[in-house]
From TrEMBL:
This is TetR/AcrR family transcriptional regulator. InterPro entries: DNA-bd_HTH_TetR-type_CS, Homeodomain-like_sf, HTH-type_TetR-like_transc_reg, HTH_TetR. Keywords: DNA-binding, Transcription, Transcription regulation. Gene3D superfamilies: Tetracycline Repressor, domain 2. Residues 19-78 form the HTH tetR-type domain. Signal peptide: none annotated.
Length: 212
């Protein structure tokens, strides 16, 4: 009687779909791009992803295509929008905006880190296609989606607001972007930013008049 092996046969894992493989490579590459810029080798990225270097070039035409995909992923706001949409609307507006500001800070930090790493090596322009006005369509889309989620945070208080939620969301987003620029001296805290946005610069209510 023939002996049978008690060791179960090994099954090969199902191959990844091309989009899944590209996403996996980009996820492994992003922190390395932030750390090393565009000088990071595809061999280092392959080791981080646990794949052979040749797999990268089956997924991407060349290294520039991979860097462009990393920039597109950094701009993509899906996770940020999901976090903004999960903010509880039954808490005070100040608490809502403070939480939103923290979420947006994380998004802009990630975007700035990747863009800064590529710009330092002169690779940013090749990684971010521009429209006729010189602005990146992906970047504009990346700002539009969070802006809509921010507007929803203002809506529960719209009866007490001086402007429409959409206009306030636009102004709040611009304020956060300006305050979060790299190298800003003595940057405002999140709480200070929200307080300044909601209550203004004056210590007392009323219109400031230099003639009085």
């Amino acid at each position: 009687m023939a002996e049978t092996s008690s060791t179960p046969s090994r099954r090969r894992a199902a191959p990844m779909e091309p989009d899944q493989r590209r996403a996996m490579i980009v996820a492994a590459a992003l922190p390395l791009v932030v750390e090393y810029g565009s000088s990071v080798s595809t061999a280092k990225i392959a080791r981080a992803a646990g794949i052979g270097e040749g797999t990268i070039f089956r997924a991407f035409a060349d290294k520039d295509a991979l860097l462009a995909a990393c920039m597109a992923e950094a701009v993509r706001p899906d996770d940020t929008v999901a976090h903004l949409e999960s903010i509880a609307l039954d808490q005070p507006l100040t608490a809502r905006l403070t939480e939103a500001a923290e979420v947006m800070h994380g998004y802009m930090t990630r975007l700035g880190a990747v863009a800064g790493a590529l710009a330092a090596a002169g690779r940013l322009e090749r990684s971010v296609p521009s429209g006729k006005d010189g602005r990146s369509p992906d970047r504009e889309a990346g700002l539009a989606a969070p802006r809509a989620a921010l507007a929803a945070l203002f809506e529960p208080d719209q009866d007490t607001l001086r402007l429409a939620p959409e206009r306030l969301a636009d102004a709040f987003q611009l304020m956060l972007m300006s305050a979060g620029r790299p190298g800003a001296p003595d940057p405002l805290t999140t709480e200070e930013l929200v307080d300044l946005f909601l209550n203004g610069a004056l210590t007392t209510p009323g219109r400031h008049d230099d003639h009085t």
